[in-house]
Amino acid sequence: MGKLKKIKHYWNKRDDAGRYFLWILSYTKPFVPQLAILMIFDLAATFLSVGMAVIGKQLIDSATNGNVSELWSILALYVLVIVGSQGLYIISGLLSVVVYEKFGFGIRKKVYRRILDTCWLDISKYHTGDLMTRLTSDVSAVADGISNTIPTILRLIVELLVTFFTLAYYDLKLALFALLVAPIAMLASLWLGKKLKYLQVKVQQTESKYRSFMQESLANILIEKSFCLEDYSEERLTALRDERIYWVLKKNRTNMLASAAMGFSFQLGYIVAFAWGAICIANRTITYGTMTLFLQLVNRIQSPIVNLAQLVPKLISMFASAGRIIEIQALPKEEYKGNSITAKNVGVKVTSVSFGYGDELVFDDANIDFKPGEFTAIVGKSGIGKTTLVRLIMAFTSKMEGNISFYNDLGEELLASPDARRIIAYVPQGNTLFSGTIKENVLMGNKNATDEEVLEALRGAAALDFVNELPMGIDTVIGEKGVGISEGQAQRIAIARALVKRAPFLILDEATSSLDEITEINVLNGIRKWTPAPTCILITHRKSVLEYCDREIQIVNKKLREAI
Length: 564
Ligand SMILES: Nc1ncnc2c1ncn2[C@@H]1O[C@H](COP(=O)(O)OP(=O)(O)O)[C@@H](O)[C@H]1O
Ligand SMILES: [Mg+2]
Hints:
Number of domains: 2
Oligomer: single chain
Mean pLDDT: 87
Number of strands: 12
Order of helices and strands: HHHHHHHHHHEEEHEEEEHHHEHEHEEE
Bound molecules: adenosine-5'-diphosphate, magnesium ion
């Protein structure tokens, strides 16, 4: 790396840290009152424990002076302070759990919502297992950092200062000597910090991979069984675990190294303070009480330093995890702008649209007008761009060039956007049912639909007959991805979910692919009779369907054109 590049690299890194810090701060704001109470309790406990050391000195001094009556009252105070400080620790511990839970959920909810609000094409590049890791363990690391690590760090700093000044009051030289550990600890943590952040990101990445694999594998047990892949899958899991263990151990080694260095300097400081105190006693320059104060305070001045140093790795983990969450939040966000169009006789015009997922274009200056009320079939071989056209109409990507807009008889227009999805009912390719009852699945199309409307939609999708034959009817529970019913049945429920929305624009993407010809024709009849009659785009492979359509469109040379 050139010198300039290197400087730029560090400059950018500094920028990152600042951004992460602001991000964390913005999430901390709503919890400031709770955190403040937590801090006050913590600090009170700290003051009490330093006070304990001072009382201890008084106790021993009174004892050596033979002042028994004073001894008892000091002893009583000592016990009181001990009970008080323990009580404070208990309360702050309980409070910290509450803050952690609330805070963790607060962040998790926001990140979850942000994932839902992110442009589909961008978020779909992440594996669900990876997103789950970010939602669970990364969010936990951040929540732990804010509810535990940061308050502890602040408390330790105060503890350090209070102890230092108390000790300095009795013996400045000793206080300064005890502080010598600080630079060593700081240097070690700075040096190891960079390495630790890198290692933490690695640990989380391998965790994501590991989780993604398990999740995908469990979702596809059938494939593993069909191809006798049980052993192979187990081996892959083991390999991923090994990779994870490698980074976890590496991170732990670095952590341990940091702790050991700190522990050593701590011990060293302690021994010197001990020796110094002993010499002073021999020279009779201090009392026995001051000696015990020394020992306790030296301990108390160094343990915050060592603890601080040990918390640095946790803080770094938190920053690394925050970075992984920020990465998701930096993806393009979708927004509802509140635009709408009178939902009657809606058509959609595609004008000069160019789009490709990568460098290669799927559409290059494509134009078409789907007129209001028209029933259009799109045919074409697999991989030609049929689903991509639907995604562009649904505005699932922000990268498209050109213009797609909905229009109606009244001359109103609405650009393809999240807002426009309100007037579209979409049946995607593949199995898209959720676990739950059939009714719950249909209601996703329109949460306010009555039972009659649900049944009506099922009838329109030629699904009512088979649903009625089920013992529980529309209350039949289906599993993840529609387990428990056939694929063709699942497709018809998905169509009913779209119909119940009564949207003016309906898109079916190979939504009848698993149906026999007669059932498919029943479905199409149901849709054509549906009121209000939607404008419809039907992606299909079956020629027999074409006679039910007003028009046939093809994708040729990355353009849209009428079939000839
Ligand atoms: N999410 C995606 N990322 C990258 N390329 C994609 C993605 N989805 C589809 N493609 C590519 O875009 C082209 C068109 O795909 P698609 O519209 O799904 O075809 P069709 O629906 O006609 O079978 C294909 O070459 C496919 O490989
Ligand atoms: Mg497709």
